[in-house]
Amino acid sequence: MSLKPTPVGPVPELTSYVARAAFLDGNPYLLVRDQLGAFYDDERFVGLFPDRGQPAESPARLALIVVMQYAEGLSDRQAADAVRGRIGWK
Fold it and tell me: Where in the chain does DSSP place strands (E)?
């Protein structure tokens, strides 16, 4: 696997709107993103990947998911479901 670093862009406007509408009293993950911005970026992980091969998934995104998974005590399957189904994780 190779890494083609991509910058962490802003949260899409519609996603942000839906998340804020869903969590009127706030959400810890939304607060962290608002206060700290992007926590990880792909540039931190460049040295861990070779120059050639299939492109890897964003290690910055995966690292953030692992942190949220640990914070909630979720299994790998539960974390995968959370990525697909929770607006706060998006």
Answer: none
